[in-house]
């Protein structure tokens, strides 16, 4: 309930991760449609770059204002930092403060005078400014570093390399906020060079108990994890895509022309299969190497037909086997009867 500097930088990191998640998801989807020659329908989604800019802008960002307050001469307090935010960020649509120039917040009693509120991607979060300046400074005085570096213990000496007289830097050490910002930038640069896979974990309740499903908590997580935008992108495009070869191999039993073996290109076999099943043309599109199915209902229909066909084939195999077994037994009995009859006639 009480958010300070630590939660602020954590939420900043979450905003950056959410931003790259949306970009990579949409980018991957668009690139595949272009690569396969499929028409792409543009989806409007909320771009949280405006929130990231509010926090990390080098001139008017909250972190920049905090660093400026920490480095400027004179009396510096958390209140002076909040006053500076009110001057610079007062008109920003995602920044709220009781002291801001935006009059719509003056009567908001839920927002104390010593707090500011940011409308994050996941929702509004209120921050207590108390401790922001001290926590951002995170200063370790130079003489303390030098004293620790002179220790005889090798581990302690290694933990304070800045105390080495040969490497003394007269510049003021970077603030915690600027260090975290640089780390996040490095992380984003690293992620953009990768092909990440996302696993979203949903917490059903805060009690860590079984058989309890908190609908409000789950809906909140779905919203701030960006799952709604991801679903919208999928629904606007095609919900399912698969290369022609495995698709034909899986569903070829549904068409007499493709079962049991199809002689020809896999794409032509899939076209024959879908035409035979009478699937509407608007429900699928043929790419260069994949079949794209728009609605999950079409895929469920294919799976239901396949399941029924498997049951029919199993029944057919069972029928043929039982017929073979009965005929084999009949022929054996007939042969035995002939042998017995011949020996009986010879005896008689």
From TrEMBL:
Bilayer-crossing regions: none
Keywords from the named record: Actin-binding, ATP-binding, Motor protein, Myosin, Nucleotide-binding
GO cellular component terms listed in the entry, alphabetical order: brush border; cytoplasm; microvillus; myosin complex; plasma membrane
Gene Ontology molecular function terms on file: actin filament binding; ATP binding; microfilament motor activity
PROSITE patterns (alphabetical): MYOSIN_MOTOR
Top-level taxon in the UniProt lineage: Eukaryota
Organism name: Sinosuthora webbiana
One Pfam family recorded for the sequence: Myosin_head
Record domain Myosin motor: where: 1-307
UniProt-annotated stretches for the region Actin-binding: 184-206
Family under the similarity heading: Belongs to the TRAFAC class myosin-kinesin ATPase superfamily. Myosin family.
Protein name from the UniProt record: MYO1B protein
One GO BP annotation of this record: endocytosis
């Amino acid at each position: 309930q009480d958010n300070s500097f630590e939660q602020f930088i954590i939420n900043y990191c979450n905003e950056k991760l959410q931003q790259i998640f949306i970009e990579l998801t949409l980018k991957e989807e668009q690139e595949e449609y272009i690569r396969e020659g499929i028409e792409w329908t543009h989806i409007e989604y909320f771009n949280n770059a405006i929130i990231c800019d509010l926090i990390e802008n080098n001139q008017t960002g909250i972190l920049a204002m905090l660093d400026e307050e920490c480095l400027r001469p004179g009396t510096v307090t958390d209140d002076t930092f909040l006053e500076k935010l009110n001057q610079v960020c007062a008109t920003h649509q995602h920044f709220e403060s009781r002291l801001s120039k935006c009059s719509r917040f003056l009567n908001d009693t839920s927002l104390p005078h010593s707090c500011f509120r940011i409308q994050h991607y996941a929702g509004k979060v209120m921050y207590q400014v108390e401790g922001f300046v001290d926590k951002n400074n995170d200063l370790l005085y130079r003489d303390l570093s030098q004293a620790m570096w002179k220790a005889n213990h090798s581990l302690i000496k290694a933990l304070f390399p800045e105390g080495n007289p040969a490497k003394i830097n007269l510049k003021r050490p970077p603030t915690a906020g600027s260090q975290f910002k640089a780390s996040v930038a490095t992380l984003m640069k690293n992620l953009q060079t990768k092909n990440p896979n996302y696993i979203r974990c949903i917490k059903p309740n805060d009690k860590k108990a079984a058989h309890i499903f908190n609908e409000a908590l789950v809906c909140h997580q779905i919203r701030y994890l960006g799952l709604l935008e991801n679903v919208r992108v999928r629904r606007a495009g095609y919900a399912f895509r698969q290369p022609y070869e495995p698709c034909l191999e899986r569903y070829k039993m549904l068409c007499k022309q493709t079962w049991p073996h199809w002689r020809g290109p896999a794409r032509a076999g899939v076209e024959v299969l879908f035409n035979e099943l009478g699937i509407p043309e608007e429900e699928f599109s043929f790419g260069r190497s994949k079949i794209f199915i728009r609605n999950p209902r079409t895929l469920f229909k294919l799976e239901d037909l396949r399941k029924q066909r498997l049951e029919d084939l199993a029944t057919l195999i069972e029928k043929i086997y039982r017929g073979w077994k009965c005929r084999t037994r009949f022929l054996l009995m007939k042969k035995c009867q002939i042998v017995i009859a011949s020996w009986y006639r010879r005896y008689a």
